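Weekly puzzle thread! Below is a chain. First person to post its structure in token form gets bragging rights.
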Amino acid sequence: MATSSADQRQLTPWPKFGSGGLEAPYVKRLIDFVNARLYMADHRALLLLKCMIAGDLPPRLNDQAVDAILGFRFSMLEAGTDSMTLWTENHQVTAAVAEYLAGQVFPDRIFTNDGRSGVRHQRAARAQLMIWMSDRFRFGFSEWLSNTYYAYDIAALAMLADHADDPGMAERAEMVIDLALLDLALNSFGGRVAPSMGRAHSEQILHPDAAEIMPVWHSAFGGNPEVDIDKLTSLFVVRERYRVPAAITELATEQPVRRVLSSQGLDVNEVRDELRNQPFHPRSQSLDLIRFWWGQQAITTPETIVDTARAMRVLELQDSRVLAPLRRYVKLPNPVLVSTLRTINPITTGKALNRANVQTVTTGNYLLSSVQRYQPGCFGDQQHIWHASLPGEIEVFGTHPGSSQLSQDHRPPTPSRWVGNGVNPDAAQHHNVLLVQHNLRMRRGYFEGPRQEMAHIHFPFVLFDQTRLGPSWVAGRRENSFIGILGTHTFELVSESEIVQRGQHTGYAVMVGDDEEYASFADFLQQLRQYRLRLSGDRLTLSSPFGRFELTWCKEFRVNGRIVESDYPRYDAPGVQVPRNPTEMTVRGTRHRLRLDWSTGKRISTAG
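Winning reply:
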């Protein structure tokens, strides 16, 4: 356990039955949701287990809760045709924690969905949790920096740390919470978490103050959020064991000026070799590969489709409502699957969360964050490529608005107007300058709706103190923060918060600054006008008296003639420098240090 922590506050406990909204109707809603196995029922199963572990439910209500837990489907390995997506990265951990704790609470009971005992469920869940946590330590999160899904991961791990009888299990859960909170600390601005993200939702991009992660942020780094027992994040807010290490708190609250480079996840084609060479949990079986691939949503890629079809047949998932669009292809012979996939070119290949090399630059006045050279020209989904934040809740970002013919039972289909990209751009960042190319000439895909030949930028004019708009440029000031965007094509103002560039191949450059660099907004504008942006063939060039930036589509990114690498280590940031695929790491705050050693399971926080 960490021996030194800045987080010594008295935390709000989980409410007792009959108080704080925890009444019989609430528990019955959880039971009904779990029994119906609706999307995110694994979240409700965790909340229901929390109510049961508290031990104060009336006997009849407790019996109903027990029946619901014993009848639940915890894994894609179990039979079921419901709409739960238990294979994605965040659902893998929420469902496995629920299964582990259910097996621990009811070791000798028979779970009616598959006829196995609680002991066997706990043993299976333990194995998968150790693999999942080890992979996150070694490779990072496929759903990188998500202000939605990190909240779910952290909440589930806090529940595991609180209630696992195995101290080693609890300690490793705390270590992965440390990593997730470190990511949030390094990639936030003014308490808002809206960097580049592997999976994003429109409201949580536009209004990060209302994102799922915010109760976690406030509880971890200062504040006393109310316990909302309808939200999974309440499990972190009421945590009993985990305390935030002082070193991470110091990075989050005392070091606003930083440049963070980090690597998250794996490319789909890396997975076989990396899992085979994983020092703690080496594995090469098809089912092991499927767990990782489906965790990163790489279900219909050329590298995975054969194993996907095999898994669907073996696990009898053809009748799953979520996987129904694949049903007709599962019957094809394996040699035909890859060629068929390449022929139909489905947009679902864009769901795969490949390795992300993320750069985030922050000062006390702005944030600029982007994922470098992420699958340019390929289909996108929920990946949020770049984002700039300024004071006053100003969020600026750009996308190629996508269109999908696939329906979703539980959320709007993606990519969409502001979520993800129909076709991914090529983006590269150097400190406070970002270059972006949109090339929409790739061939159309199966399930793709009408392709819009445009890129657009969310730029909320009404929230700025001052703005200027020219034929192919825009700039804004909020307090002491400045942002400017130059375009290769005309900027068309279509609303008070949206700028459009029309064309199949367009580009723009984003620059942020503050009063530490510029004497005034007028000075920022004067320098902005000295920049020249040009798109010639596949090369986007930004030139000025102060430097030259060149982004060649899917090739080099050069600054003043020198190639800038976009292949990042696990962390290169103030306080933490770690290579890819680490077995240990040290985090240094202003006054404290945190050492995490996965090989020994040691987590030590010290002063100095």
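Puzzle host: Confirmed. Bonus trivia for everyone else. Residues 441 and 504 are 6 Å apart (CA to CA).
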